[in-house]
Amino acid sequence: MRRWIVWSVGLLAYIVAVLDRTTLGVSGLDAAVRFDASPGVLSTFVVLQIIVYAGAQIPAGLLLDRFGSRVMIVAGGTLMAAGQLTLAFSESLPVAIGARALLGLGDAFTFISVLRLVPHWFSEREIPLVTQLTGICGQLGQVLSALPFLALLGGAGWSTAYVSVTALGGLIVVMSIALIRDTPHGRAEPVRSIGVRDTLANVKTVWLRPGTRLGFFTHMGTQFSVTAFTLMWGVPYLTEAQGLSRGMAGTLLTVSVAAAIFSGITIGVVTGRHPHRRSRVVLGIVASNAAIWTVVLSLSGPAPLWLLVVLIVVISVGGPGSMVGFDFARTFNPSRTLGTATGIVNMGGFIASLLVMQAMGMIIGAAGGYSFEAFRYAWSVQYVIWAITAVAILITRRKARRTIGQIDESKYLLEFFDERQLSR
Question: For 310-333, how does the pLDDT look when each residue is reduced to its tens digit (9 = 90+)?
Answer without folding.
Answer: 999 999 999 888 888 888 877 777
